[in-house]
Amino acid sequence: MTEQVAVIGVGQTARYRSKLSVSLAGLVREAALEALADAGLGWQDIDALVIGKAPDMFEGVVMPEIMLAEALGGTGKPVIRVHTAGSVGGSTAIVAAQHIRSGQFDRVLTVCFEKQSESNAQWALSPSTPFRPHFNSGAGGMFAPVIRDYMRISKAPEDIGCRVAVKDRQHACRNPRAQLQLNDISLEQVQDSPMLWEPVRFLEACPSSDGACAMVMVNGKHTGSSANPPAWIHATSMRSEPSFYPWRNEVDPAAGRDCARELYQKAGIRDPRKELDCAEIYVPFSWFEPIWLENLGFAEKGEGWKLTLDGATHIDGGDIPWNCSGGVLSSNPIGASGMIRFAEAALQVRGMAGEHQVANARKAMGHAYGGHNQFFAMWIVGADKPV
Amino acid sequence: MRDVAVVSYAQSPAQRDTGGTTDVEMLVPVIDRALADAQLTRKEIDFICSGSCDYLAGGAFSFVMAVDALGATPSAQESHVEMDAAWALYEAWLKFQCGEIDVALIYGFGKSAPGDLPDVLSLQLDPYYTQPLWPDSISLAAIQAQMALAKGCFTERDMAEVVAASRRNAIHNPAAQLKGEFDASDLLKEETFVSPLRKHDCCPITDGCSVLILASAEKARALCERPAWLRGINHRMESHFLGTRDLTTSTSTMKAAGTLKLDGDKLDVAELYAPFSHQQLILQQSLKLTDNTRVNPSGGALAGHVLMAAGLDRFGAAAREIWSGRADRALAHATSGPCLQQNMLAILEGA
Fold first, then answer.
1. Which of B244, B318, B332 is CA-nearest to residue B287?
2. CATH 3.40.47.10 fits B4-116+205-226, yes or no
3. What is the average per-residue pLDDT within B213-239?
4. Do B76 and A239 touch (CB under 8 A)?
């Protein structure tokens, strides 16, 4: 018999940007304390700690959970550290939920972070290693060919990426935590920004950020401590595939489709665009919005860009708003970015998303991906307890 | 609690340096062997979880390419911990308890040879107060050993006896790196390396990998004549401030043992992940093991130490004792962090 799991606490650092004056411990505590306050719990109430982050090279500390556990009240408790590349924030949330669903724990604190100001993401994402050739491409260089392939296959108009960028940057202005606050953003401004990795322009790319995100999850029997409504976890799923194999579709990865299919099946969802009220999807480069719209079944193959063009994913007037928080395009502390997606989905169904709240959101999706479009983690949360 | 058992385990030979071999090249034959021993195919695996550390190879995302070792399609339910693969096993065990899976494959791998491991591990310390002093992992262990010796917890001869027993036991372990008949008195004649530790008190540096398969009750009975049932598993963390801990004992181990209601007198075998001889003695004392328990019949980490797999190896070695009928009840232990900062215990039983 498995247990119901609810998110009753969410915490995030005040604003995602370089925080040179705070230690790693200070960074994660800021998010954790806010999550605990939201949950109405203290450190002593927590049974286990689940930490996630992307490569240790971003901060130069090997297995940093070892030195962060005490700052997060983990002394004397089970502590586990997840790392599944860019999807880690989502995977970590799922592992935390499993601690409770398994019946082994009642209250779990999960925290993800990245402090990219400690190093250089471009370097840390592509260092030279002893046993393989050196690409030095960074994430943008890895994904640009995939985007070009999408443009070729879908015959999407060339300005779709820029439109996504404008939309997410407009959304970000409603979220005081978003790093980039570009109040007067325009299509022309994005189009005129420097080309970084053809066809990805500067304003179509995510920034490098510092930040942490935390959640308190509890067994469904123990939601009472929080003054705020819970977000019920309806379904979770994770899928991976290798970076390269001859018949691999990098634009529409099988692992992403499989992951979404399992997720919707578990949550009893047939049409995600109709049945979900909003979604927080991992879009670090603008063109990944149409790519994921198709891969996740919100649109037919080759049609994803039309949703963007029609404004379907915009918080103002869209029928399925994507990334109301401003998304990864507006803040990207890599190891935390997936958890921010999951947490923002929870905030939406709790009615706690502030200015970027989607009216009457009852069901929302969180999504994260990593590696070479190969690691996926997803969840669906709802305002109602799942039946 | 849902019954889960270890049904298969394979490890690569523990080698000082595997040269230019990639992680995938190391893993594929070992994964194949673990699957073949249980007469399973990759498609019958519901969940895969691994443990590794980017800093060993010196490149971010070292586990990403390792996924190649699993085969291409269909996509896998897969996860990874930047910890010893014993914690990957723990993540899988939780998934069993959620009722989501029936067969899980766990793997851990590490190539420590490319870097200077003791220095690499000093980057595990807090970067503000301790890391700038560059205390390496052997020096920190030496401080711990000195404290325990000064307190009279054990003697240098006890430490040498641990090493002699490890190498004697390892004679029967084809994967072991260091093995043979050694006399404790002769070992004590060797010079100290980082006082009070002699070189033989320290685990070797090893490249390698291990693979272990877990199965739920129904599957386990079909796959294995005498499955090694996981009867309890618990892990605990301690502070990273070495000065605030009593390094001569292992409070997190004792706490985990208390949660499991472990009776140190009723274990046939204990496989302890002790990278240094004195740490095995600290663990034995914290667990209140008696002469009834055979410790590290595999030789333990002193006979071969694949960082990120050595904890999983303790599960594998304990399971082998159960499968063979040499033990009915065995303890598997894993550790992480300097001076035994984090510890995991699991009880395995044959019935």
1. B332
2. yes
3. 97
4. yes
